[in-house]
Amino acid sequence: MEDGKKILVGVTGGIAAYKVPGVIRRLRETGCEVKTIATEAAFRFIPEETLSIATGSRIHSDKTWWEESGRVEHVSLARWADLVLVAPATADAMARVAVGLGDDLLSATVLAGARRVLWAPAMNPEMWRNPATTRNVQTLEGWGHSFVGPGEGVMASSEEEPGVGRLADEAEIVAAVERTLSVDAH
């Protein structure tokens, strides 16, 4: 991957959020500059400090919507990023964007003209198979957004039966970032 690519990682409120610092570390090791947005629900699963240490900078959230200059962060972050990676991408996060809701910093940033968006879904298998989720994925793909995963296996939520819904592994996500960046922006 080219050094200096700017990746904005959007962390949502799924249990797989605990895996995101590893993804961020791998992205930084490839020479990417990384910033992170976390939804308020994400902080129920991973501390802000952990994300900040992994990213190497402050975390953007609904609390930081306005910059000190008076500019709104969702516009400046959308313009800054070569790619927005949403990981884990919950059914809720995908639905919010697919129907045009922009009342949190992450969804507003995606809707504010992010050049490329890569979703890494992670959710219960029944949620992944739900017709509403399928429709939302199709809508986002129709806009030119990309997806990596979900994978199959035992869920972090202690599901006994394996199913499709696991967050893709770190190497798979980083490879998908590289592929997505190599495609011309839509």
From TrEMBL:
Signal peptide per UniProt: none
A Gene Ontology term for the protein's cellular component: phosphopantothenoylcysteine decarboxylase complex
SUPFAM superfamilies (alphabetical): Homo-oligomeric flavin-containing Cys decarboxylases, HFCD (SSF52507)
GO biological processes: coenzyme A biosynthetic process
The EC number(s) this enzyme carries: 4.1.1.36, 6.3.2.5
Flavoprotein domain segment(s): 5-178
GO MF term (any one): phosphopantothenoylcysteine decarboxylase activity
A Pfam family: Flavoprotein
Keywords annotated in UniProt: Ligase, Lyase
Keyword Transcription on entry: no
Superkingdom of origin organism: Bacteria
Stored PANTHER family: HOMO-OLIGOMERIC FLAVIN CONTAINING CYS DECARBOXYLASE FAMILY (PTHR14359), PHOSPHOPANTOTHENOYLCYSTEINE DECARBOXYLASE (PTHR14359:SF6)
Protein name: Phosphopantothenoylcysteine decarboxylase / Phosphopantothenoylcysteine synthetase
